[in-house]
Every structure is written in structure tokens, then in C-alpha cells.
Write a structure and sequence with these properties.
Blueprint (H helix, E strand, L loop, with lengths): L6 E7 L11 H4 L7 E7 L5 H5 L4 E4 L6 H4 L7 E4 L9 H6 L4 E2 L6 H16 L2 H9 L3 H8 L9 E5 L3 H10 L5 E5 L5 H6 L3 E2 L2 H7 L2 E4 L13 H6 L5 E4 L8 H10 L4 E4 L19 E3 L10 H17 L23
Parallel strand pairs: 1-2, 1-3, 3-4, 4-5, 6-7, 6-9, 7-8, 9-10, 10-11, 11-12
Helix pairs in contact: 5-8, 6-7
Amino acid sequence: MTSEKKEIILVPVRVKRPFDIGRYEVERQALVPHDVEFVECLINGPEILNMASKAKALYVRGVHIDRTIIEKLDNCAVIALASVGVEYVDVETATQKGIPVTNCPDTFTEEVADHALALMLAAHKRVLEQDRMVREGRWQQGRAQLMQIPRLFGQSLGLLGFGRVARAVCRRALPFGLKVMAYDPYVSETEIISAGAEPVSHEEVLTRSDFLSLHLPKSEKTKNLIGENALKIMKKTSVLVNTGRGSTVDEDALVSALRRGWIAGAALDVFQQEPLDTSCQLIDLPNVILSPHVASASTRFEPARKRRVGHEIGLIFNGMYPMSCANPDVLPRSGLRQWH
């Protein structure tokens, strides 16, 4: 039973777990002045709609929240996501209800940037192929392969999208002697230049990059943006790196590009379908490096995102604007106060 005096933070889950009083301890740190109760409910269970009408906050972690649930959030002050992407939530319906949707856009920037650069370097130096050569007794083939590859210094890194992660990648790449260029229609040339990169057009970032690193949000505009047409105009020696969104890349076109030599290699952390099906043709290609959507993972992953969610909920419970809001149009009519 939940106390009527408590402020309910509803947590939809796929599987109910045994009660653990310390499970939400990190989130509670930002909610100390409030008497809150975290209530887990099966996302497809009979209680979810009833509890939704009582919730003051909805805490979303890896489950999809559709219109049916959001329409029942009659007392909800915030939908808080423990992720960067907001595709788990029907943001349009939340906006219609006047409910702010918060996320964690800057919590894992450094980790993802590290992973992007690690994938790029591993692909450039053919690390997996070199490893197999040693294990399979093909020692002499290693040097011969790398003698065909230019040194890293002086190569061009193209960034498609120039948000937080792309800028962090830029900071890491410059000391390697890479020439960094970026295309982002929503970022001014002045900002790109001040970060140490060259502002270029969409076509230029495709045709001039030795490494193309993708940092785009999931949307209809970016879906399959890297398809056959884009891959065909990239350098035959180029490497594609994706730590952004799997939907950005047309994987069938990518397989063709890798097999036909349109590009030299790819290093991917995100995919159209996850987990990646073992029948996916990318798995069989020697010039591809794959990781299981783990770019943001580190020892600080869980405490960092939990702390951020608690902070966002706490700000709104205290009548303040959140730090991050996916639907900022709701804020002026929310009654919340701006920071001064």
C-alpha cells in the first residue's frame, strides 16, 4: 500500500523485483525535503493506469511510455528519463498534457567520446585483424597490411553532428594531429571554428573525411541518412564510426559498401535492431568492429544517471525549471520558475 501523503514516483518496469529499500537511494539524495515513494509497476500490468493517475512523477528507464499511459497522468509534474534519447516517450502527448519531459543529455559525454575515438583508432590500425593474424600464426602478414595504410597524423576526421559528444571527440582528436571538420546545420560556423574544427557542408564532410564519426539524434530526418548515395561518395579509404543512433545508417547499404570497397571499414556501437541478430551480415565482415551499445558504460554510469534523474525531479518538485527539457515549450505555462 502507498501512503496518500507521499508523493509517488512511478517507475514502469518489465519485471517486478523483490523489494529493496536502498534501490533508489541515489535518486533520493536530491529529494530529501520531499516525502517520496518509488512505486514499481509492470508496464503491461493491470495496475499501471491506476497508479499513473496518482503519480507526481514518472521515472522512465528502458520501457516505452505511450499515449495511453501519458493521458492518465493527471497529477504528474514531470516525466524523467534516465537516458540521453527521448524516443521511449510519446513527447507530443506529454506536451499536450503540459508535462515536461527531462533527459540526461550531458551525463555520459566523455565516456561516449572515449569510445568513439577508441573505435576509430582500432579500425584505423586494423587491431582486430592484427590480433587474428598473431593468433592464427600469420605473423608476417601484419606489417604488410599496415604498410598499405597512411599514418594517423594529418588525416581528416569528419563529424556529422556537432553536439556535446562530437565536441568532446574533437578535443581528443586534435592532439593526435587530425584535421577535424564538422557539419551541423544547427550550430554556427563560429562555434565550430572556436572548437578547433573546420565548418563544412554536408557533402564535404562525406567526401573529404578519412574518418566519418556520426553524432546525430534519432529522427525522421536522420533515418538512413548514411545510405547508398552517401557511402558511394565517401573515400574508398575511409572508415565510418557510429556511436550515435543506429537508425542513422542503412545497414544493408553499409554491408554492400564494405563488400564492394566503397569504404574501407566501419566501427559501430549502435544498430537498427538491438540486440544485433546473429544472422546480421555485418558480423561476418572482417573490416567491421562491433560493440554492443556500450559507449556510455563505466563505473559511474548508474550513479550518474540516477543522480541526474533525482536532481531533475527535485528541481520540478521545488517549482524550478529542469536542467534539460525535451519539450521546452511547456515550461512557460508550467508555473515553474526560471533560474536566476
